[in-house]
Amino acid sequence: MKETAARLRRAARIARVTGRAGLRERLANKGDFVLAIVNGVTYQITVLLFATVVFTRFPPLAGWTVAQVLLVSSVRLLAHSVFVLGFTNVREIPYLIRQGRFDSFLVRPAPVFLQVCTSRFPLNAVGDLTVAATSLGVCLSMLRLDWTLARIGSLVLAVAGGAALELALALCVAGLVLRRAGTEALFSWLDTVIGAFGNYPLNVFPAVLRAAFTFGLPVAFVAFYPVAAVLGKAASVPYGPALTLAAPLVATVWLALGGWAWRTGLRTYTRRGW
């Protein structure tokens, strides 16, 4: 127990030191600092505006009102922001390899995953979090829900579970990238799929996509199923109301899979001649 606590304290110290170094590096270029924050704000606002325009131009779809749809989008964006703040550098592994920095992580006396996550401070997370939190506040004021402790807990768990799922999927791709060159495009594909389909109720998609995002790539568990539980709409979701409570289990399973993929990738990784 003492040894585990000591390792955690050491990891926390390393994270603080490398995190501060990464932040100082980003602050050295004021233009990059401003543009990174603006990029985060612009991306999040664009996603929300698109969802708002689509669902205000049409009557409620599949029993979901505009405010309810925007809650799905807001939770998804907030979960994504949490992921970006802590773990987005996992998606930078192809660039770290090309720069030769990743190989240096392998010989340092610190966890490789921790070094990757703290190698560069994600300034765009500031804009992401600001817009996502603002959007969530607006949605909640529109919905006027009765906020019990159970409902608050469900909402917090929804955001945490969505961030965990994004991390798990990024680790799966990272493990593949470490094993095989030329698979880097999967990071962009994954980000596009979650961003394009994770902001809307699963009910509005064709049956093949509903099945794919529930039993294949777990996009629907990032926000849709947990938000359905928060809104009390469990009875209306595809494949049964039990799935609205399954997001933590799904996130745990995928994190285990992502951890295995990451460890396997590290064991089989060899230096590449970029």
From TrEMBL:
The chain crosses the membrane at residues 33-55, 61-88, 123-143, 155-178, 208-231, 243-262. This is ABC transporter permease. It comes from the Bacteria. Keywords: Membrane, Transmembrane, Transmembrane helix. The keyword Lipoprotein does not apply. The keyword Membrane applies.
